[in-house]
């Protein structure tokens, strides 16, 4: 016997493509199905589910009287539905006499029906089928009284159309609004109607309650994400088999305003990154800061967790960890640490708190039990906060908050937990006798729990955030051909970094600015950089860059003019020198002529004794 027809009801469950679905709402011509695991909603038509069921693609696991099993009913519906479907193919005027005769002729010949229905009977089947929201059960002749609609067909069609539009509207409408829309639609189509033909306000309200899907209304008003969460039920319980089998980690913005430790100025709200053991509900690690979540905060939380066994505290290396999908957990540094310690990462689904419910519940308990009782709390709810000025009454510094939270966690560990019906610390101490948590030393964690960055090696140095780090061993590897290497940075102390060579050699490189980087955090360094940039901008306002450009132009013009002046002066000096040289030569020629004229003198000159003669005695030769 073939179960060919399915009439879905709310609560029906079936498996399609190895995934379990549940029918969660019925509309006029379709129904909403939701995945049993995940709560994703979608809409199917009646024809789709029947077609898939006939092909064997769907397996019903909970029918809730959704499947017709009576052979007589199945045969009746098969016969009548074939006539109805053929008539509805016409679309407009599907109940016309001509269309009904055509459908009867085609189907009776196709199925060898010896007693085909009359046109009046087929028209009745079509009217019942359409007025009963295309439910195939209405084609069964139950003979239990008059259950047909008592309103004209055009009124029913107008109501169905208005209800569909109401589901697709962002704003909620009343029954009177729908009644006015029905009148408006009938008037637009020039359909004659009377007041007695219409539904009462109470009847429209019942139809609205039956066919108004809250998912569609939230979808149009708030978007898909909010609508999916609005209609989703709480998920199944999350179970862990033992200590540190599964650890949940998440970040939370604390509802309190904190002050600066030194100047007591308002700094804003603090953040906490926390890890909780799913089995014992013990807090195995946390990190508090005024900075938003980052890879560094997640690494510091894991560092606190994996070093606790060496300090004889509750913590250790977990088998699996469920982080959030934020960038603080999805990064190379986080993956490298988990890979080194053989920790399995099970990322939570996007915007799904059910994957890590226990850490979310802990944040809620801590907020209600501790944070809201401290002066300066924001109360997280504007209605609850009213006129309370959180910044005015802020009185807690970050260091004080770091002292309050561990003390409250110690109290939490020693109180009865209703979720496990045990005291978390007592359960931990009991399970530690069966399994001893493993951990690593602080020095090992100091190398592993660092952010990873790729940098170039230049002359034995690497550059990170405008700070150089040097090592002579690094220079040796550079000479061997290593030009790039990953560096490991502790954002809370920039005095030194570790450089990985070929992922197996770790070299410590110290800062070239030892005094400046001593115990310097990355956030402080960035704040200093911002101050320097502001000073630079102030200097540029006082001494604009354009003035420097114009000054350079004037300087270049001055240099050019001096060059031209020097060239002209040099020409003048050369000319003067040339003139001077020509004058000297002229004087020499003149003197030579004088000599010659003097030599031609008739007078006899006596030179005296030749041995006592010298050129110095000749005044003429001496001057020349």
Question: Could you please describe the fold and organization of this structure?
Answer:
By secondary structure, the chain is of the alpha+beta class. Among the domains are: about 155-230, no CATH class; about 245-440, Nucleotidyltransferase, domain 5 (2-Layer Sandwich), CATH 3.30.420.10; about 450-540, no CATH class. The protein is about 45% helix and about 15% strand. It has helices at about 45-55, 70-90, 95-110, 120-130, 155-165, 175-190, 200-210, 215-220, 225-230, 295-305, 330-340, 355-370, 380-385, 400-415, 425-430, 440-450, 470-480, 515, 520-540, 545-600, 620-624; strands spanning about 15, 20-25, 30-35, 40-45, 60, 245-260, 265-275, 285-290, 320, 345, 395, 450-455, 460-465, 465-470, 485-490, 495-500, 505-510. Strands 6, 7, 8, 9, 10 and 11 form a six-stranded mixed beta sheet that branches. The chain has a six-stranded antiparallel beta sheet with strand order 12-15-16-17-14-13. Helix 2 crosses helix 4 and helix 8 (about 215-220) runs antiparallel to helix 9 (about 225-230). The protein starts with 12 loop residues before the first strand and ends with a helix. Mean pLDDT is about 80; it is low at about 615-624.
């Amino acid at each position: 016997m073939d179960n060919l027809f399915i009439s879905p009801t709310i609560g029906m469950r079936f498996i399609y493509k190895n995934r379990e679905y549940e029918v969660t709402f019925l509309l006029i011509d379709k129904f909403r199905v939701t995945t049993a695991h995940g709560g994703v909603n979608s809409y199917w038509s009646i024809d789709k589910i029947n077609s898939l069921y006939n092909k064997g693609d769907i397996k019903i696991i909970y029918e809730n009287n959704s499947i017709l099993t009576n052979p007589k009913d199945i045969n009746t519906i098969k016969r009548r539905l074939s006539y109805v479907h053929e008539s509805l193919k016409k679309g407009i005027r599907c109940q016309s006499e001509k269309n009904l005769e055509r459908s009867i002729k085609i189907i009776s010949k196709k199925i060898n029906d010896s007693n085909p229905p009359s046109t009046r009977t087929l028209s009745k089947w079509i009217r019942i089928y359409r007025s009963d929201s295309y439910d195939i059960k209405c084609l069964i002749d139950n003979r239990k009284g008059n259950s047909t609609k008592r309103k004209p067909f055009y009124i029913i069609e107008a109501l169905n159309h208005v209800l569909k539009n109401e589901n697709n509207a962002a704003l909620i409408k009343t029954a009177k609004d729908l009644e006015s829309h029905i009148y408006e639609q009938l008037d637009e189509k020039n359909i004659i109607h009377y007041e007695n033909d219409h539904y009462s306000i109470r009847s429209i309200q019942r139809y609205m309650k039956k066919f108004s899907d809250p998912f569609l209304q939230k979808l149009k008003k708030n978007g898909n994400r909010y609508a999916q969460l609005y209609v989703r039920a709480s998920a199944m319980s999350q179970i862990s088999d033992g200590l540190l089998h599964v650890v949940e980690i998440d970040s939370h913005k604390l509802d309190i305003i904190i002050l600066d430790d030194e100047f007591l100025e308002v700094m804003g709200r603090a953040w906490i990154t926390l890890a909780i053991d799913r089995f014992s509900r013990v807090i195995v690690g946390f990190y508090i800061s005024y900075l938003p979540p980052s890879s560094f905060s997640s690494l510091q939380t894991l560092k606190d967790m994996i070093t606790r066994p060496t300090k004889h505290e509750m913590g250790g290396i977990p088998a699996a960890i469920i982080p959030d999908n934020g960038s603080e957990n999805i990064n190379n540094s986080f993956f490298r640490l988990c890979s080194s310690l053989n920790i399995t990462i099970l990322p939570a689904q996007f915007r799904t708190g059910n994957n890590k419910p226990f850490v979310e519940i802990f944040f809620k308990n801590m907020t209600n039990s501790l944070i809201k009782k401290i002066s300066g709390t924001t109360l997280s709810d504007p209605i609850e906060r009213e006129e309370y000025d959180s910044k005015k009454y802020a009185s807690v510094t970050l260091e004080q908050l770091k002292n309050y939270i561990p003390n409250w966690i110690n109290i939490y560990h020693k109180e009865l937990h209703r979720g496990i019906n045990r005291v978390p610390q007592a359960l931990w101490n009991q399970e530690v006798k069966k399994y001893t948590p493993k951990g690593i030393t602080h020095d090992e964690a100091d190398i592993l729990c660092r952010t990873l960055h790729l940098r170039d090696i230049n002359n034995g140095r690497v550059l990170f955030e405008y700070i150089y780090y040097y090592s002579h061993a690094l220079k040796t590897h550079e000479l061997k051909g290593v030009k790039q290497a990953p560096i490991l940075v502790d954002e809370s102390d920039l005095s030194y970094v570790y450089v990985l060579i070929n992922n197996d050699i770790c070299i410590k490189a110290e800062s070239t600015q030892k005094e400046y980087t001593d115990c310097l955090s990355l956030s402080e360094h960035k704040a200093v950089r911002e101050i320097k940039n502001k000073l630079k901008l102030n200097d540029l306002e006082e001494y604009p860059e354009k003035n420097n450009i114009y000054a350079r132009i004037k300087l270049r013009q001055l240099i050019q003019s001096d060059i031209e002046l020097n060239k002209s002066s040099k020409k003048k000096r050369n000319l003067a020198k040339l003139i001077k040289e020509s004058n000297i030569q002229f004087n020499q020629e003149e003197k030579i002529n004088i000599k010659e004229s003097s030599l031609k003198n008739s007078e006899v000159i006596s030179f005296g004794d030749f041995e006592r003669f010298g050129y110095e005695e000749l005044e003429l030769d001496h001057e020349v």
